[in-house]
Amino acid sequence: MDTDLLQQLNVERQARRAAILITDLENGGGRLLREGEPAGGGLEEAAERAFRSGKSTIVEADGRSLFLNVHVPPARLVVVGAVHISQALAPMAAIAGFDMTVIDPRTAFATEERFGSVELLAEWPDEALERAPLDAYTALAAVTHDPKIDDFPLKSALESGCFYVGALGSRKTHAKRVERLKALGLEEAQIDRIASPIGLDIGASSPAEIAVAILAEVIAALRKRQVAAS
Predict the structure, then answer these.
(1) Distances in Å between the alpha carbon of 223 and those of 49, 160, 204?
(2) Less CB within 10 Å around the terminal CB: N or C of the chain?
(3) Which domains does the chain have, with CATH numbers?
(4) Which mean pLDDT values do the consecutive 10-residue runs of the chain (230 residues) have?
(5) How far apart are the first and last CA of the chain?
(6) Which helix (H) or strand (E) holds 173?
(7) 8 A C-beta contact, residue 71 and residue 41
């Protein structure tokens, strides 16, 4: 691999940005396509599919055989609230391939005994997210029912372009949340991205069933997300 291309690719990976290394299988020539850049050469649809699926593939374009080596950041799931739903969600998220982090300043809930090997941050979300900022390859689920804990990460998730933002609560609870977020400076169009009530509507009632509904909605948002315009 060309050293310069490798350096460019490493920069994108370290910044948690998606990129495709395109190699011409006939002459070995290559170039780096960053998400959001024009693909050109008849590659628009193939590149969009590759960014969305995260799977490398060989395609034919303009009479050339090209290998698309896809590098997409590992999807993260940040859950605000060390509650029963989060406990049920943790093993499911791991099976689905998500790196999961639970944030909750309430030390009585955020314990290793309840969450095992899951990354657990027993601190306020503003402190935790300062060290590990949210990004476009992160999903955020706020499940504490406590505005003092949930509101800041919801605002951060919307401003950071997280591919999924969900919040637990009834429609009445969410209406109050909307007013608080508007007071914090968010536009209605941004707030409309919040999935609330959280999770797919499968009639879930138990914490485990709600966790299934949340994870299904997160996966759907990841695989059907709008790939950055090119």
Answers:
(1) 10, 19, 22
(2) N
(3) 3-71 (no CATH), 76-223 (3.40.50.720)
(4) 86 93 92 92 90 92 91 95 97 96 96 94 96 94 96 97 96 96 96 96 96 98 76
(5) 25
(6) helix 171-183
(7) no
